[in-house]
Amino acid sequence: QDTLIVWSEAENYDLALSFQEKAGCDEIWEKICQVQGKDPSVEVTQDLIESEEEHIEEMPETSPLIDLPTCELNKLEEIADLVTSVLSSPIRREKLALALENEGYIKKLLQLFQVCENLENTEGLHHLYEIIRGILFLNKATLFEVMFSDECIMDVVGCLEYDPSLAQPKRHREFLTKTAKFKEVIPITDSELRQKIHQTYRVQYIQDIILPTPSVFEENFLSTLTSFIFFNKVEIVSMLQVSGFQLRAAVPALWCQSAPCTGTRALKLLWGMDDLQVRSAATDIFSYLVEFSPSMVREFVMQEAQQSDDDILLINVVIEQMICDTDPELGGAVQLMGLLRTLIDPENMLATANKTEKSEFLNFFYNHCMHVLTAPLLANTAQDKGDKGTGLLGFSLPFEGLWCLGVTDAVVGSTKSNTICPDNYQTAQLLALILELLTFCVEHHTYHIKNYIMNKDLLRRVLVLMNSKHTFLALCALRFMRRIIGLKDEFYNRYITKGNLFEPVINALLDNGTRYNLLNSAVIELFEFIRVEDIKSLIAHIVENFYNALESIEYVQTFKGLKTKYEQEKDRQTQKLNSVPSILRSNRFRRDARALEEDEEMWFNEDEEEEGEAVVPPVEKSKQEDDFPDSYEKFMETKKAKESEDKENLPKRTSAGGFKFTFSHSASAANGANGANSKSVAAQTSPASSNGSSSKSTALAPAVTAPKGSLVGLVDYPDDEDDDEEEETSPRKRPRLGS
User: Fold this and answer.
1) In the chain, where does the domain assigned CATH 2.30.29.30 lie?
2) Which of 154, 267, 551, 653 has its CA 20 to 30 A from that of 75?
3) Bias category Low complexity: which stretches (predicted)?
4) Is the separation of the CB atoms in 678 and 667 below 8 Å?
5) Average pLDDT, stretch 548-553?
6) Helices 191-205 & 223-242 angle (0-180, nearest 10)
7) Are strands 652-653 and 4-8 parallel, antiparallel or unpaired?
């Protein structure tokens, strides 16, 4: 097919070989046909599977079957070759299955197995492994009925112990007969029911434990085995009903009206025990409850919130178990994180005419639980050792177990006042799990998580983790920011630019140097997305603040492309300005502060209609937005001052040859507060821009906010010649926009 060669392997499995050039495809096709003895000019050389299946259906009962070799020790190799050879042909598989069924061949083979095992005939046992495995791959329920009967199943398991690829045979029969114990919650007196339960367990063991993982060519061979197990389970349930077995009589607490309440309080007691197996069992029970009915669990926890303190709420206890998991690989934490994600997933939340489960539960979660989930993250990105007990944001950590994971290693005893980053591997794994859940929230909880991120300045805290020595944790932090930018939400974009939150990402890129690794690719992809999607506000911020450090990166065209996009938008703005009468130019940047308030109010109202009440109050509008220049002249003066400052405040080159930024941007600036006393996140400001002030603070001039849809106040207007001349001698300076 031009640049494709397609063929079928086994049953219902199609493959294709793709070529870039038709000539290469034709060359390989001719060689294949040469080996097969087929004419390369014929487009189809393989007999279609469909025609074979139709032939099977039309095959008369008198059709000759495959002649089986006599069931003797010296014929085992021949039998193994025969069984293996028929697997690729549906017709021959059907004929072999009929022959095995009609002649009672399987029981004869299992008798030979006992002989070979008694004689310790290793070669014969290896052949029997291949034979029994091949018979299973015939995928016939009638053969399974024979093989999995009480009379034969343990010998089938015995044959499968002698895998030729293993140095020593496995001991599956010993496990099934001595180690595995049948535990009855209540006595089961029906012998047929007991036998069916035993059979199902053993067949499930064969499928999950004994048989090797099937290859791509074999994965469809065991579909009937899966169906056999499923129908066995259906039959067990039916037999329980027919026999009058009453679970309600056996376990009345599970069936009473208060069952969810009884079960989940019970779970909190089990999680509080010292026995690891008991806690693991409680987690399993909770997973069954969540998988069965997440809405039932959500309904319970919301009722619980009306009667209990936050510290003992079920969801918070689950989060505590996740945070305090003692497993070095955090296996339990991973399981609990998956259950939490199921509970907060809006896709499985119900909506009725009178209420919306989504808005009610998310309001509950962000009010009562989110601070517990983010506590380790906030504690590990605290800026001062004195913040240990409050997570820097004013709430008390709800449990002491957090500190056993190494959080204190990064906080207690530190004499530095700048941000810290966790180096404990287990803590890093935990923070990666939390970030994965928060990233899920960004994708699915647009309104609630947006308010939380902005009010807590969460993205700034997350980006501290870009300094982690654990690359996987730095990538998790970057992925969190990538999801936020991927929403293309201007509220997020303004939050990022005002807080200068690209700085830690670019520093990480520069610190990575010339290493071509996953971190490098992920950062490049972030900026490439911004370029391709043409997110103008972010492009302007990046080019204006960081292009001098990034222009030397030439192995990709991403940053040059950003500069091109920026220049194109700048030209469009210039042309747009030239088309405006000069009498209107002085007022083109004027915008009533009330308009901003109305826009934000409109946004909150729209989201409230969609998702319910706000969990946290909206971010307060910064005073800098109100200090808007009243005239075009003021704007041009501050613009010239900024351009003059940029010439002196370029990023400094490090010893490794890269650039390091030394801009002073505080957390309060991101939230719109005055930054006169804010501390620098990256480093101190340069002496040229400090003008004799304290090295940890800088006086900020009013920020200039450009009108909606335009670049952020960096448009050069060629028609203002007098202003250009004045720019060369102007001594006035102005901080970077958004600082």
Assistant:
1) 1-48
2) 154
3) 664-697
4) yes
5) 90
6) 160
7) unpaired
Residue 408 half-sphere exposure toward CB, CA atoms < 13 A: 10
**Residues 632/586, Cβ–Cβ less than 8 Å:** yes
Token reading at 305: 């919130």
Which of 642, 639, 645, 652 is CA-nearest to residue 684? 652
The first and second tokens of residue 363, run together, are 């309001």
Global pTM?
0.52
Exposure class string for 555-583: b at 16+ Cβ within 10 A, else e: eeebbebbbebbeebbeebeeebeeeeee
* CATH for the 1-48 domain, from 2.130.10.10, 3.40.50.300, 2.30.29.30, 1.10.260.40: 2.30.29.30
Distances (CA, A) of 564 to 524, 531, 570, 621: 17, 10, 10, 32
Contacts of 132 (CB under 8 A, 6+ apart): 109, 147, 156, 159, 160
CA angle 736, 537, 614 (to 5 degrees): 100
Q: Give me the numbers of helices (H) and strands (E) for the chain, helices first please.
A: 38, 4
* Residue range 406-433, pLDDT digits in tens: 333 332 233 333 344 456 888 999 999 9
Closest CA to 246 of 182, 188, 291: 188
pLDDT above 90: residue 127: yes
212 phi, psi to nearest 5 deg: -70, 160
Rounded CA separation 599/299 (Å): 35
C-alpha dist (Å) from residue 492 to 108, 422, 442, 722: 73, 27, 11, 38
Instruction: Give the strand pairing for 14-18 and 652-653.
Output: unpaired
